[in-house]
Amino acid sequence: MTDTAPATAPGAVAAKVPPGSSPWQLARRELRRRPAVRVSLAIVVLFVVMAAAAPWLGALGGWSPDTFDKSAIDPYLGGLPLGSLGGISPDHWLGVEPVTGRDLFARVVHGAQVSLLIAFTATAIVVLVGTAAGIAAGYFGGRTDAVLSRLMDLTMSFPSLIFMIAVLSVAKDVNRIVLMTTVIGLFGWPGIARVVRGQTLSLKHREYVDAARVGGAGAWRILTRDILPGVAGPVIAYTTLLVPGMISTEAALSYLGVGVRPPTPSWGQMIAESVAFYETDPMYFVIPSAFLFLAVLAFTLLGDALRDILDPRGGRT
């Protein structure tokens, strides 16, 4: 007699997931079983804490980001840092800048604060505007959908990078962080609006939405109680994938010289200034580049994992 039991029983996979698990419970379970994602989450938390505690961390290191330490550089060698590895020492944990002698640790942690503040705020603007526009276009349809869809197409077809560079170059006596956040957020909302619009179109004719409509519920109640929870998963997944792009955009604009202005530190600005010293002091280039790389990589891996969990139809197979 030959056993013909299937390799995987029909209920094997379902047995691993307790019935009634919420999306957040599923997300926590999946994140716990993926080592790479756990490492990414730890790095993300580390960067967020570092950005939030930048003033205290800078004080812990004993230097402010704008303080010059002429004793840490050699005036006879063009201002190169004294010692090996860019001047790393007990006084300067990550070394110092050439010529100025400013502490790299203090500038890197304050640069994290600037980069993450711009990235998170711009992402919040994009998510709020994109979600509202996508839900309105998908639910109301008709002329509302036509107008919002054409506005999405127009914004996405606009050369946003050139416009950002032009606006940031012309604007002088303004708060650069507020201006960068507004300009970056202005061009980022159509992508998430398209995702939300598609989800709303598939949800607005579901039985529970029709039942709420027949029961006399108004549009606002249906949108907030029935439609919005249905699009929350894809929106959360898309949000985590937006953050690394925002960090890269801020770094690119600062690298080009139209972003955050000195003496405010920024990773992109530090990388741009280090190009002139990459042969004589490579650590000045390596340190801010490594922080930027780790931040973008960690947020990207975490966003990919959340997309696979919360929006499996939109993730990779």
Protein architecture, described:
The two termini are 38 Å apart. A hairpin with a 5-residue loop joins strand 1 (73-74) and strand 2 (80-81). The chain has helices spanning 12-16, 23-32, 35-52, 54-61, 104-140, 142-157, 160-170, 176-186, 189-203, 207-214, 219-255, 267-274, 282-310; strands at residues 73-74, 80-81. Mean pLDDT is 83; it is low at 1-15. A two-stranded antiparallel sheet has the order 1-2. It has 317 residues and is mainly alpha-helical.
Measured on Cα atoms, how large is the radius of gyration? 25 Å
Structural class by secondary-structure content: mainly alpha
Average pLDDT over all residues: 83
Q: How would you sum up the major sheet? A: 2 strands, antiparallel
What order do the SSEs take from the amino end to the carboxyl end, as H and E?
A: HHHHEEHHHHHHHHH
The largest sheet has its strands arranged as: 1-2
Helix content: 55-70%
Ends apart, CA distance between termini: 38 Å
Low-confidence stretches: 1-15
Keywords:
317 residues, mainly alpha, two-stranded antiparallel sheet, 13 helices, 2 strands, elongated, disordered N terminus
What is this structure's SSE topology?
Blueprint: H1 12-16, H2 23-32, H3 35-52, H4 54-61, E1 73-74, E2 80-81, H5 104-140, H6 142-157, H7 160-170, H8 176-186, H9 189-203, H10 207-214, H11 219-255, H12 267-274, H13 282-310
Antiparallel strand pairs: 1-2
